[in-house]
Amino acid sequence: MATATKKASKIRLQPLGERIVVQREERESTTAGGIVLPDSAQEKPARGTVVAIGTGKQLDDGTRAPSQLTAGDRVLFSSYAGETVEIDDVEYLLMREDDVLAVIG
Description:
Layout: E1 19-24, E2 47-53, E3 57-58, E4 64-65, E5 74-77, E6 83-87, E7 90-96, E8 100-104
Antiparallel strand pairs: 1-2, 1-7, 2-5, 3-4, 5-8, 6-7
């Protein structure tokens, strides 16, 4: 089980259950034609890297199903998935594993 940490930070973010922590990829600030886009005109990318995973989804019989993801996986997710959390000026998304659409291989 991985946890989201930053070297200089003492804050530790450990997701519970079927939740995961994802760090979004950086946005492109210029277009292919060289036009610089302001932050307000940019769409947030729906891709990122899994930083930490929870213990897995609890099944009806009380056992836990292991996560299909591992820390370090690059994933695609819904644009409106998860809750944004900022720790030491780094933005993370806390979302359910079900919000992940695909793993980028």
